[in-house]
Specification:
- The chain is α/β, with parallel strands linked by helices.
- It has three domains: 116 residues, 3-Layer(aba) Sandwich (D-Maltodextrin-Binding Protein, domain 2); 85 residues, 3-Layer(aba) Sandwich (D-Maltodextrin-Binding Protein, domain 2), CATH 3.40.190.10; 77 residues, Porphobilinogen deaminase, C-terminal domain (Double Stranded RNA Binding Domain, 2-Layer Sandwich), CATH 3.30.160.
- Helix content is 35%, strand content 24%.
- It has eleven helices and 13 strands.
- The protein has a five-stranded mixed beta sheet, with helices on both faces. Strands 7-6-8-5-9 form a five-stranded mixed beta sheet, with helices on both faces. A three-stranded antiparallel beta sheet has the order 11-12-13.
- It starts with a strand and ends with a helix.
- Keywords: Porphyrin biosynthesis, Transferase.
- InterPro entries: HemC, Porphobilin_deaminase_cofac_BS, Porphobilin_deaminase_N, Porphobilinogen_deaminase_C, Porphobilinogen_deaminase_C_sf.
- One of its GO terms (molecular function) is hydroxymethylbilane synthase activity.
- One of its GO terms (biological process) is protoporphyrinogen IX biosynthetic process.
Length: 310
């Protein structure tokens, strides 16, 4: 008997592209399963006139989708991992983390070709405090302006509005095949310039903990290395109690069989930046260790001050 699986997705072009990619991979392995997409509008999608850090709260792009899972209106959901809070709603689990796409940030220019080419006071568009803080750390003269909307909206704003450059995630651009179509010069910001967000470039496929059928389906998408790295990053985020209102970054890679995690906490203006790089085997132990070292360096004071004054 054919079983129908309802897959939850945000309505954005990128979210739907990611969801259709997941379905295509599953369909190839399970041709007898019928998949359908349920589009869900989240709080983060509705509020476009203010930066995410000012909206506040966790799970701005996830909460409504998790509600649909809990109420059994959908069977699983596809998220960008960087949008998923460090703690899931009760009864829900990450059923699979597929192989990660490019985790770096991409700086797209209106006219210039490199970060150093930007004139003093150049206007860079990003609503991410993490990106803004790290760019200001290396170029304190830049003017950071908030920019919201999906990929094509922000590219149009680069063209039509007073931006000299904008920052987007490389993963989204690659998944949408936008990089080949760009009419502007761009660079990938290396980790020394802009350490990625926790989970950036990875997908999270969330389902109900009790749904053994769906959990078994999703197992074929699981990538062991990406999963290990993301667990380490998310342990760091949870230990710091961070969200989008705090400039926190974390990226883990596996090198010569060792897991290496880089973590960063910064003030919004980028003037005070704490960074730790450490290696280990256990992703949870490593994530906690990097968080502890950042706390010893003063990360908690930065986070507390931002929350009190934010």
């Amino acid at each position: 008997m054919t079983r129908k699986i309802i897959v939850g997705s945000r309505r954005s072009q990128l979210a739907l592209t990611q969801t259709k990619w997941v379905i295509s991979k599953l369909q190839a392995h399970f041709p007898d399963v019928d998949f359908a997409i349920e589009e869900i509008v989240t709080k983060g999608d509705r509020i476009l006139d203010v930066t995410l850090s000012k909206v506040g709260g966790k799970g701005l792009f996830v909460s409504e989708v998790e509600d649909a899972l809990i109420e059994e209106r959908i069977d699983f959901a596809v998220h960008s991992m960087k949008d998923v809070p460090s703690e899931l709603a009760e009864g829900l689990v990450i059923g699979a983390i597929p192989k990660r796409e490019n985790p770096l940030d991409c700086l797209i220019f209106k006219r210039e070709k490199t970060l150093n080419d930007l004139a003093e006071g150049a206007v860079v568009g990003t609503s991410s405090l993490r990106r803004a803080a790290q760019l200001l750390h290396v170029r304190p003269d830049l003017t950071i302006q908030p920019i919201r909307g999906n990929i094509d909206t922000r590219l149009r704003k680069l063209e039509e509005e007073n931006f000299d450059a904008i920052v987007l995630a490389a993963a989204g651009l690659k998944r949408m095949n936008w990089l080949d179509k760009l009419e502007h010069d761009y660079i990938f910001l290396d980790e020394a310039t802009c350490l990625p967000a926790v989970g950036q470039g990875a997908l999270a496929i969330e389902c109900r903990e009790t749904d053994s059928f769906v959990k078994e389906l999703l197992e074929i998408l699981q990538d062991a290395e990406t999963t290990k790295a993301v667990i380490s990053e998310r342990t760091l985020l949870k230990a710091l109690d961070g969200g989008c209102e705090i400039p926190i970054a974390g990226h883990a890679t596996i090198k010569n069989g060792q897991l290496e995690l880089k973590g960063l906490v910064s003030t919004v203006d980028g003037k005070v930046t704490h960074q730790v790089t450490e290696q280990g085997q256990d992703p949870i132990v490593l994530g906690q260790s990097v968080a502890d070292k950042l706390i010893q360096m003063g990360a908690k004071e930065i986070i507390q001050e931002l929350r009190e004054n934010g």
